[in-house]
Write a structure and sequence with these properties.
The protein is of the alpha/beta class. The chain has a single domain, classed as Rossmann fold (3-Layer(aba) Sandwich), CATH 3.40.50.720. It is built from seven helices and eight strands. An eight-stranded mixed β-sheet has the order 3-2-1-4-5-6-7-8, sandwiched between helices. Helix 1 crosses helix 7 and helix 3 (64-78) packs parallel to helix 4. The radius of gyration is 17 Å and the shape is globular. The two termini are 30 Å apart. It binds NADP nicotinamide-adenine-dinucleotide phosphate (NAP). NADP nicotinamide-adenine-dinucleotide phosphate is lined by residues 8-15, 32-35, 60-62, 87-90, 112, 144, 146, 189, 191-192, 194-197. The site of NADP nicotinamide-adenine-dinucleotide phosphate has 29 residues, from helix 1 and strand 2.
Length: 255
Amino acid sequence: MKKTAIVTGSSRGIGFAIARQLGLDGCNVVMVATGPQQNNQAALDELKALGIVCAYVQADVGDHDGRLKIVDAALEAFGRVDILVNNAGVAPLVRADLLEMTEESFDRVVGINTKGTMFMTQAAANQMIRQEPLEGRKGVIVNVSSCSAVVSSVSRGEYCISKAGVSMLTTLYADRLAGEGILVHEVRPGVISTDMTSTVHPKYDKMIKEGAFPIARWGTPQDVANAVSALCSDKFLYTTGNYIDVDGGFHIQRL
Ligand code: NAP
């Protein structure tokens, strides 16, 4: 029997690379994004062309009903949930100094990144607990946080706070779910070339070239996908609550 992997925010960027990698690893994939399926048909077709069996769910992880819809859609399509990758996340719409940050922006970023991950994990974990183990395991949950969980950026404080929250909720769920046979891990990407970072691309290019950034190159979505794939793999012998830093050029593992 194949495992089913839900990957939130998987229509493009890091999430798409994770969905493709888990599909190539042999999972059925549930692609999730806020846009309608027709907007993301090319991404779905790319997975299908690789022989990956996938379903699409239009849902907002920041919304209670959206989160339940995702689990329901996975069950309807494939009957179970073995892997959840909480990847969907947003940056602030405007980078504003900490002293100018608006409450609206704080609520939006924390609502999607932190609250979305918190309660998406809760919904999936309760389903994993209800189902029979597959290959000796009830499930694996991987949360995509960020180096911003521990590195301060005063022009996007709400993002840093939201990702620090993801780190703590990962530890909390790791502790709570270990006894249920569910592994919970975290991946902390550094700077990865995607739509999210397109506005700072020229600035970071210059900093990398001048050696002002402690990285050798931009990370790629596939770098993050490789880390997630390793954490979801049966070859991964560690227990729960690990995190992997994915930085361009340096893949520092702290396990
Ligand atoms: P991206 O290119 O902006 O893609 C974001 C994806 O999430 C899209 O598929 C988007 O699709 C979906 N999405 C956005 N809001 C959503 C919501 N409320 N509910 C469901 N899906 C939603 O971002 P990315 O760079 O790939 O980032 C992916 C994750 O990695 C994020 O959590 C981000 O914080 C984290 N990260 C990124 C970097 C980086 O350098 N890029 C570094 C560290 C961490 P729709 O727009 O159609 O909804």
